[in-house]
Amino acid sequence: MIKKKKRAVTIKDIAREAGVSISTVSFAFNGTAPVAQETKDRIFEVINRLNYRPNSAARGLVTRKTNNICLFTPHPTSDFFSFSGNGVFSDLMQGIGEVLDQKDYNLLISWDTVGYKAKTPKLIRLIREQAMDGVLICLPSQDSSIINELNEHNFPLVIIGGADKSSAVNTVDVDNHEISYRVTRHLLELGHKRIAFISPGQLEFLVCEDRLEGYKEAMSDAGLKVRDDYIFIGDETESSGYRAAEAFMSLKEPPTAIVAGRDIQAVGVLEYTKEHDISVPQTLALVSFENSQLAEKHGITSITTNLYEIGKEGAKLLIKLLNRKKERAAQNMVIPSGLVVRGSSQPQSESSAPSVAASTESISVRTRSRKQ
After folding, report:
1. Looking at residue 141, what DSSP letter applies?
2. At residue 176, what are phi and psi to the nearest 5 degrees?
3. pTM for the full model?
4. Helices 206-221 and 176-189, interaxial angle, to 10°?
5. What average pLDDT does range 283-291 have in this prediction?
6. Residue 200 confidence (pLDDT) above 80
7. pLDDT digits over 318-358, tens only?
8. CA 351 → CA 84, 183, 262, 285, 295, distances in Å?
9. How many CB atoms lie within 10 A of CB 359?
10. What is the mean pLDDT of residues 150-172?
11. Mean pLDDT across 177-199
12. Other CB atoms within 10 A of residue 185 CB
């Protein structure tokens, strides 16, 4: 015999049992209007006794909140951004997820093709459909038109990563120009003058442009000319690092050091040096960005970009925006970075040591404001 499924407890049942109206139960549960403490206690006693669980959709109609936060990213098959096997993205997700879980928010993930030019972008459609309360946007592109449109809707948003300097929008990121300057400066201080650079992606992406400009500025400040044949536009693959090293080391005057835009690219560089018996760091020094497990595993000097902290602080900032009563100037939060020096860039006299302690210098947290 099939047992009849027990009917779920509804708000009507709570109201009838507590001897109050349905609206009073709703006011007490959602805090949308004052309810006498004695009445509230009676309502919650019934709620606990009957094990009432509110329907989230119905609750949203009352509170006008979904308790959903959207993480909007480029398409995961783009040549700059992917989810599969991307430990850095996992760190970002963990930082965001921990904060939202503490605040009882759900995390939705949505993406669009990089440079998507539809008449009504997907993100705008989601906002019009009231699918979420706020949005965290990974915006590697320099196209800020979507940000301007979101601002027109007065919708709570935080950019994970840098945004166009002209955009009055809340952002959380590392200072990519500064950290690129620092890793290049590290090689210059070791005595290198022929230093090549691998971009983490196409220069249409802000992070790539900022890191290239940081490298160029460090070279210029050292009185060195930047050579076009010492710049390689890479992507998110190990093979792009291999191909860059192949291009550089086949030059008549090859570099003595390389700044790789990502740890995964640096691994590709090391693969090339192993196959061609090029000693690191004696013949070729190597530095990188991210300071991921790859850098630690392969002994690569790398500077932290700490996506976990970026995700965490981005989520915190968005929660603040959702709870604010008054409009304030946009904040641009800079997460500190530290250079971890390992065997790939030590002076020759120290190259036999597997690693050295992380540099104590770091970029201090800075919060700048832009007027809306």
Report:
1. B
2. -65, -30
3. 0.74
4. 40
5. 96
6. yes
7. 999 988 877 777 888 999 999 999 999 976 444 433 333 34
8. 34, 18, 22, 10, 16
9. 15
10. 76
11. 96
12. 18
How many Cβ atoms from other residues are within 10 Å of residue 34's Cβ? 9
Report, as an integer, the average pLDDT of 89-113: 86
Q: Residue 169 carries which DSSP code?
A: -
Query: Which tokens sit at 38?
Result: 């004695």
* Residues in contact with 294: Cβ distance below 8 Å, sequence separation at least 6, in sequence order: 87, 263, 264, 266, 267, 300
Tell me the residue type at 71: L
The SS3 call for residue 106 is: strand
Give a three-class secondary structure readout of 194-244: CEEEEECCCCCEHHHHHHHHHHHHHHHHCCCCCCHHHEEECCCCHHHHHHH
β strands within 17-105, DSSP E: 68-74
φ/ψ (deg, to 5) at 183: -70, -35
What tokens appear for 86 in the block?
């991307």
More confident site: 33 or 205: 205
Full set of structural domains in the chain with CATH: 11-63 (1.10.260.40), 68-174+308-334 (3.40.50.2300), 176-303+337-367 (3.40.50.2300)
Cβ(270)–Cβ(301) below 8 Å? no
Render pLDDT for 29-71 as a digit per residue (tens, 0 to 9): 766 678 888 888 898 888 888 887 665 545 554 556 778 898 8
